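job 3f2a | input accepted
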Amino acid sequence: GTRVWGLTPYWRAPRSPYWGARTPRGLLPPGAAAGWGGGFTVHRGVYVGMLGPTYETRSEYRMARLIGGDAAGMSTIPETIAAVHAGMRVAAFSAITNACSPDLLGETTHDEVVEAAGAASAKLRAIVHRLLAEGSATGAA
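job 3f2a | predicted structure (141 res):
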């Protein structure tokens, strides 16, 4: 992911790791396979971390696309930073709850986002369960 917000307590942390590749390559193929095996659509992409808690503006969508972003949100990046500082390996799955284009921007309501997240939760749960079960079977979990 790409962090576009300013300094955080993690930025100056003594254990600040190299951020070139946060998701271990070994977790990407099984994660995608778990989604595809469950019959779900899975995309790989670049997640841009925004501050929130607001919906992005047209300019922010354009900036995210300009720097190579495919999706934007406010929680996955700081959670990944905290997990890495705790010594964890991280694989992140995100549900896109409001697909937007800077030139076709409509109003997004909180209720619509909550509804989309609720609709995606069972799919995400199934993917994670499948990934953990396959990892347990191979001793990788």
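job 3f2a | The first strand starts at residue 2 and ends at 3.
job 3f2a | closed
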